[in-house]
Amino acid sequence: MKKTRLFWLQCGACGGDSMALLSAAHPSLEYLVVESQLELLWHPSLSPTQFETQLEAVLHDEQPLDLLCIEGSIVTAPNGTGMFDCYRDRSKLSIVEALAAKARYVLAMGTCAAFGGIHAAPPNPSDCIGLQFEGAIPGGLFAPEWRSQGGLPVINLAGCPCHPETMAQTIAMLVEGLPFELDHLNRPKPFFSTLVHQGCSRNEYHEYDIEETEIGTNGCMFFNLGCQGPLASAICNTELWNGRNSKTRAGVPCFGCTSPSFPLDQELFKTEKIGTIPARLPLGVDRAHYLAYKSLAHEAAPERVRKREMEP
Ligand code: SF4
Ligand code: SF4
């Protein structure tokens, strides 16, 4: 099997996506390296080789580059130079531009690289942006029409961190040459076409409008506790983290970390409301229908659901 060479560069990042990738199981990183001939040219935590040697080899066309994985926001301060985040006398921003010109595919590993994420939240002191988006607005470090040598825009593997299986399976599909479609935010559709709400073990409480006000209780966290599961595209409840659990199953609201508007400028554990109704409704649901549905559903709730007898 032909080798696939991967170069991983951290920019304005916490390293969470690297940590998450290590827990991927289907396939694992080890499987990709041993069985699928994935060659890590450079990864800041895993490579025994020299960064500069590998970088120069790629930039001088002595080393082909298949997958460029960028973790973290692109720091552009001060004054567009990017020198707040640099390697020796070179900004990471300029290194990313140079490597991206050589790569077959460029992947944004996590919401910071995709959309700007946490580092780009107001007041954004280091002028962070995403690789090809600024929040939901197309155009970041690269213009919206930019394409890598493989003909795709930056592939946005959103999440804070991105789900391990989303990263590993996207890499596997690129290694195998399997085609996949991207959504309107350039996220691979196989991993961003379901909502976190789908597969949540608290769904029955949501259906019957059984609203919780305290963390650690059995019911749905959408109405009062800030859960964005019905708005967030991700596989968190259909492919469990570490094969075991998810935020909402463990009793923590989904913060919508795969969205370009993450992090929202609001309290994490509180639902913003217009009157008594959440300001952000489940994806695609209109307010009038929701109002009607909500009161009917609450009236129809069976006793076992009212009494919170169903364990999440
Ligand atoms: S807790 Fe969140 S994800 Fe689970 S059912 Fe309620 S709204 Fe959906
Ligand atoms: S449950 Fe929500 S906040 Fe948590 S990782 Fe999944 S999409 Fe992100």
Number of strands: 13
Lateral strand order in the biggest sheet: 2-1-3-7-11
Q: Main β-sheet: number of strands, strand sense, barrel status?
A: 5 strands, parallel
Please give the CATH class of the largest domain.
Answer: Alpha Beta
Helix content: 10-25%
Instruction: Briefly note the CATH topology name of the largest domain.
Output: Rossmann fold
Associated small molecules: iron/sulfur cluster
Our count of helices gives: 10
Distance between the termini: 45 Å
Question: What is the CATH homology-level superfamily of the largest domain?
Answer: NADH:ubiquinone oxidoreductase-like, 20kDa subunit
**Structural shape:** elongated
User: Gyration radius, to the nearest Å?
Assistant: 21 Å
Written overview of the protein:
The chain has 312 residues and is of the alpha/beta class. The protein has helices at residues 16-22, 29-34, 51-59, 92-100, 111-115, 164-176, 189-192, 203-207, 287-300, 303-306; strands at residues 4-10, 38-42, 65-71, 74-75, 86-87, 90-91, 103-109, 128-129, 133-134, 137-138, 155-157, 273-274, 277-278. It folds into two domains: 4-192, NADH:ubiquinone oxidoreductase-like, 20kDa subunit (Rossmann fold), CATH 3.40.50.700; 194-312, Cytochrome-c3 Hydrogenase, Chain A, domain 2, CATH 4.10.480.10. Strands 2-1-3-7-11 form a five-stranded parallel sheet, with helices on both faces. It has a two-stranded antiparallel sheet with strand order 4-8. The protein has a two-stranded antiparallel sheet with strand order 5-6. Helix 1 (16-22) packs across helix 6. The N and C termini lie far apart (45 Å). The model has no long low-confidence stretch (mean pLDDT 95). The structure holds iron/sulfur cluster (2 copies). Residues 196-197, 200, 202-203, 206, 220-222, 227, 229-230, 248, 254 line the site of one iron/sulfur cluster. The site of one iron/sulfur cluster has 14 residues, from helix 8.
